[in-house]
Amino acid sequence: MIAEQKILGGECSILPAFQTEQENNYDTLSVNELIMSCPQSKESLSRLYVMFKESVFSIGFSVTSDYHLAEDCVAETFVRLTQVRNFNPDRGDGRGFIFTVARNVAMEIRRKYKKSCNNPVIQSYGEADKTVEDSIFINQLLKELNDKQRQIVVMKVCLDLTFKEIAKIMKTPESTVKSRYARAIAILKKKAGADSEK
């Protein structure tokens, strides 16, 4: 994992560090309960928003490659959580459910704005110490990946999801996710010149 983070420009610099302390310390049971109470409780929605807004943004950005569309993805994802009817807290992981909703929303947004998403550009935002050169370098690296590879790399490296969780979110066999990730990392290593460091 450390090698992958180096290739991507340091401490997960494809995007800002998206995991907040609150999200790292979440309790599956409490997340499930918050999802169930979202339609009736603004407080539950607010707590989920604070816990997951940055992770939802990173998923939206990995799909759309557009900062503003990723922001739209965040808003629409949390609107949809207020309309949840089919979540069973006994059968599911709330975090995975939220990420699945976010990816589905991002795919819908990308289809709607397909022309503007055809040329992915990594925009410079986030921490002040990010340089223009880093953004350009990361942009060039990610252009080498196809949509699915880029999504898998972001979910694995930035969100620290397991291959099993990514497979569930993408509705793809785990073995396919692993092979796409391996292929993506090989492409990134080659393009970043990491092969010569071995």
Task: Provide an overview of this structure.
The chain has 198 residues and is an all-alpha fold. The protein has one domain. Helices cover 67% and strands 0% of the residues. It is built from 11 helices and no strands. It has helices spanning 2-7, 21-24, 28-37, 42-64, 67-81, 94-112, 114-117, 132-143, 147-158, 163-170, 174-192. Helix 6 (94-112) packs across helix 10. The radius of gyration is 17 Å and the shape is globular. Mean pLDDT is 76; it is low at 9-25 and 116-130.
**Number of E strands:** 0
Low-pLDDT parts are 9-25, 116-130
SSE pattern, N- to C-terminal: HHHHHHHHHHH
Largest sheet, strands/sense/barrel: none
Structural class: mainly alpha
Helix percentage range: 55-70%
| Number of contiguous helices | 11
In whole angstroms, the N-to-C terminal distance is 15 Å
Q: How big a fraction of the residues is strand?
A: under 5%
> What is the radius of gyration computed over CA atoms, rounded to a whole number of angstroms?
17 Å
State the domain count: 1
